[in-house]
Amino acid sequence: MRLPRAWCAALVLLACMPAAWASAYNARPKLVVVIVIDQFRGDYLERYRDQFGGGGFRFFLDRGAYFTDCYYDYANTRTSPGHATLFTGSYTSEHGIVANEWWDPLKKKRVTSVQDDAAKLVGVTSAAPGASPHNLMSDTLGDELKLATGGKARVFAISLKDRAAVLPAGFSGDGAYWIDAKSGAWITSTYYRPELPEWARNFNGSHRTDKYWNREWKNGDGEVLGSTAPRKGKDGSPAGFYEVIGSTPFANDYQFEFAKELVLYEKLGAGPATDLLTISLSANDILGHQLGPDSPQMRSMALELDRQLGEFITFLGHQVGLANVWMALSADHGIAPLPEFAKTLRLPAANLNSEDIRKQLNSLLAKKYGKAADYVIDVDYPLAWLNEEAFAGHKEADSEADAGQAMRLAGFQGYFTKSQLARGETPQAEMGRRYAHSYSPYGGWYVMGIPTPFHVGTSSGTDHASPFSYDTHVPLAFYGLAFQPGVYRTHAEPVDLAVTLASLLGINAPTHATGRVLTEALQTPRRPAATAAGEVQ
Questions:
Q1: Which CATH number is 350-456 given?
Q2: How many CA atoms lie within 13 Å of 31's alpha carbon, on the beta-carbon side?
Q3: Dihedral sign, CA of 106, 111, 115, 121?
Q4: Among residues 88, 508, 518, 520, which one has the fewest Cβ atoms lying within 10 Å of its Cβ?
Q5: CA–CA separation, 485 vs 477, rounded Å?
Q6: Per-residue model confidence as pLDDT tens digits over 25-65
Q7: In this structure, are strands 325-330 and 476-479 parallel, antiparallel, or unpaired?
Q8: Which of 254, 237, 240 is closest to 182 using CA atoms?
Q9: Cα(429)–Cα(435) distance, rounded to whole angstroms?
Q10: Which run of H or E residues covers position 51?
Q11: For the domain 35-331+468-521, what is the CATH code?
Q12: Nearest-angstrom CA–CA distance, 397 and 446
């Protein structure tokens, strides 16, 4: 079938549209989609490249701008800081999000990075507090998009985890959605709206989760890798959706199913300004903690996600048109090898117990001060939160230094205290810079330990929270008319994502952004043709 000549002309014009024509103010592109894969190491794309199909990851690798040398330049490689970094274009020292949770000396308990006692959960009956981005010290790409367009741009974010939806959505997002861990129902917070929109209520009411229970997860060879049969949880009660299905590829299917409904019913890509959608896929992280990056299940998870990405990209092509869409792909952090596996290669790896470390630190501090007390109130390895009351009569800087020395005796390679970081007292070297970028005023008194490589703070499985390459190396890739396809081996950082997109959209970068525009991967704007008389046409 031949296309009408007018259609052909329009397609040719669109294909030749230079990057300089892009503008969020007139919906060019119509939609920006950012895919964040939780705990997706930067080497995965090369490890499985030959096994990918043509429409998922290869979409970015072969038709997009792919940066192979993308590393976080900080030490606190956790989910919350990673998502905040990607969308503020800055590190913790600027956006403030130091961990998934931190010790609140006033409440005398851990609080989450997005916990907001002034808000309530929407979509589930619960006494738990709601969530909001109120702890962010910088605005986000989505906030700048809303500001630039007078609120006309639509900004949404979804994830299985609240923090991975709330932080990308920013302060002015139209919606952030995550799931109730038990039922799998999609929920939000009164920070965004008093009740779920009708389409989301209908989604939950249609029992979409039912089809993901009692299923076998098989690889391409038909081998069973897992099951979503109901089972007991760690506390002896029936395990919920997040625990059972969350660690399988079915969780990604569920997220993309919800994402498609959101695009359709919120009419993303159909407004007068560019819209932004962030999809943070959590299943990779849930499984990776259990089995490590080198397991057959993680390989199968990546290959299944390749298929799922391809299907979603095809959906965007039908719904919005790929000529009208820009996409970006990255991750919030990597993951350490499973210590059991690393040991087989004679690497000095170990599983550590954070509670045992806390007790050891308290014992060492008791010897120094002459009395037993809970000097270290909590350990989120390799970060130690201190009990200010236990150090009565001692200054913060001195108390943190004493705790740091105890951490050295307990096996840490070194440490940086909160007081040191606040004063900028770090060595002018890569490791010093990474810890300087990890400073936050939140959390009372604390000490950031420098862990030994391949040592993780969990008794089993593996973890991420270090400044080492296996935790900091993540993928970074872009697709769209504004980008010059190719493999780029120039150094890039996740802070560059928001800054690059903001520049191309013609809007301000987020307030505290420190990233750079990745100009090497941008299409060169075409110059207007000149007539014989020298006039520009």
A1: 3.30.1360.150
A2: 25
A3: negative
A4: 520
A5: 10
A6: 999 999 999 999 999 999 999 999 999 998 999 999 999 99
A7: antiparallel
A8: 240
A9: 10
A10: none
A11: 3.40.720.10
A12: 10
Q: What residues does each domain of the chain span?
A: 35-331+468-521, 350-456
Q: With b meaning 16 or more CB within 10 Å and e meaning fewer, what string describes 200-224?
A: beebbeeebbeebeeeebebeeeee
- Residue 386, classified by CB atoms within 10 Å of its CB into exposed (0-12), middle (13-18) or buried (19+), is buried
CB atoms within 10 A of CB 5: 8
d(CA 96, CA 257): 33
Token readout for 251 is 């969780």
Q: Nearest 5°: phi and psi at 311? A: -65, -40
State both tokens at 329.
């792909």
Count of residues making up the chain: 537
Round to whole Å and give the CA distance between 463 and 473: 14
- Tell me the HSE value of 354 on the side-chain side, using a 13 A CA sphere: 18
Q: Alpha-carbon distance 97 to 136, whole Å?
A: 7
Structure tokens at 536: 């520009």
Same fold, 35-331+468-521 and 350-456: no
Provide the H-helix boundaries in 219-295.
241-244, 249-265, 283-291
Q: Which of 377, 373, 357 is closest to 365 using CA atoms?
A: 373
Q: Which residue has the tokens 């294909």?
A: 15
pTM: 0.94
Cβ atoms of residues 197 and 122 within 8 Å = no
pLDDT tens for each residue of 220-275: 999 999 999 999 988 889 999 999 999 999 999 999 999 999 999 999 999 999 99
Using an 8 Å Cβ cutoff, are 278 and 169 in contact?
yes
